[in-house]
Amino acid sequence: MAQRLYWIAEEMNPPAGSRAGVITQMRRFGVSGFTLRIDWSGYYTASGVKNTGYKTNITTDIAALQAGSMDIVLDLAMQNTPAWLHTTYGDSSYLKNQFAHNFNPLRADGATPGIDLGDANIIFNPQVKAEVLQFMKDIGTDIGWSNFRYVRLGGGHFNELGFPPTAPTVASLGGLTASNASAADTNCYWSWDINARAQLAAAYPQFAVGGISASWVPGQNSPNNEASLFLTWHLNALRDFQNWQIAALRTAGYTGRIMMLYPGWGMRPPGGTDTNGDFNLAVATNLNNTSRGETSSEVQMAHDWVRCIRSMTDPLVITYCTWADAGYLGDPGGTYNVNLPPAARNVSATPYDWTPWHYIDVQGKALNPPLDTFGENTGGGMPTCISNCVAAARANNALGMGLISFTDFYANGITGGTPTANLTTLAATL
Fold this sequence. Notes:
By secondary structure, the protein is an alpha/beta fold.
C-alpha cells in the first residue's frame, strides 16, 4: 500500500470572514497543514518597533487554524522587506550587480511592488542579518515556536534559496523591473555590493582593490583563473547564507523541523554522458552567459544544490523542492529534454536528466542521517499535475506535498463556490 502523504495548503493566510469554511473544506479533502506567512515587512513599523495590530491579526489566524485542528507551517517571510530597512541602512542594504546597480524592484507602471521580492541584502550585510535574527527571536517570544509544525526558510524571491534573477526584467517577478538597471544589464551576478566585495577579497586577495583581478567581471578573459575562483566564491556565499539561516533560527530558540526551499532545475554535476557539468561549462567560457546553466540562470542564481545540501549538519532540515511537477506531462520543461519521461529521467546515470525533486532528494539522502524531503507543485496543469506530483512524492519517499493552490478547485471561491471537475480528482488523489 502506498504511503499516506501529508498535505499542506499553500494559501499563506486564511481569508478573513471565511476561515472556518476554508479550514472545513481543506480538512474534508485530506489537507492536514496550512502555510501561514509572517511578514518581516508587517511585523515592525521601524527598526525594533513592533506593529501590534499585525501581531493581533497573526494570533487570530493561528487560533482559527488550531480550532479547526489544522497544523501550521510558518513561512518566515524575510523576503518581504520593510520599507524602513533601506532608509535605515542605505545603499549596502541592497544586493548590487557588476554594473553597480541595486536590486531594487520597481513596477514599470510606478505602482507599489508586490510581495515575495527578496530585495534585502541578508546574504552579505551583517546589520541586515542582525535585523532578521531579531525578527526570528521576536516571533519566538511574541508568538511562540510551539504553534508551528514546520518553519520554511530560503530568504530569496518567494522565500526560496537563491540570488535574484539574472536579467533586469523577468516574468518571475510579475513583470517587475528588477533594479534601476538599464536593459543592457544582462548576465547579472548580484554579489557586487561593498560587503560582498570585501568578503570576496578576503577569500581571494587578487580581487582586492589594487589586486590583479580587481576590475574583472564575468565574461572577460580569465588569465588568473578569475572565472573559476569567483564562481566558487559566489556559490559558497549562497551555501553559507543557507547555513546561516538554519543557525539563526536555532539561536532564536526554534528546535523543530525546518523546510529549506530549493527552486529551479539546479546546477548539475558531471556524470554519465554529461562529462562536464554546469560549473565547468560556465567557467570554460568565462561566465559569459552562453552555457546551458547560465542561459537558464541556474549559475548566476547559485542553484548548486550539491554544494548547499551536502554542507548541512542539522538532521532536522527537510529538503523542499518547489518544482515538483517539473518534467511531467503538462509541464513545458524548458530546455531540460522534456521528451524524456520522468521514470526514465530518474534512473539515468546522467544527473542532468533527473527531475529537480529527485536531484534534490539524492543530495539529502547522501547525508548521515539522510534528510527527509517535501515538494510543492507550481500551481497549474490541473488535474494531471497533482497526479504526477503524487507519483513523484511516492517515488522520492517524501513526507508530503504542498498544494498550490487549493482555491483553484473552486470556480467562485472556496466557501460557497462551485467545485470544479478537478476537485473530484483531488479528492481521489488525496
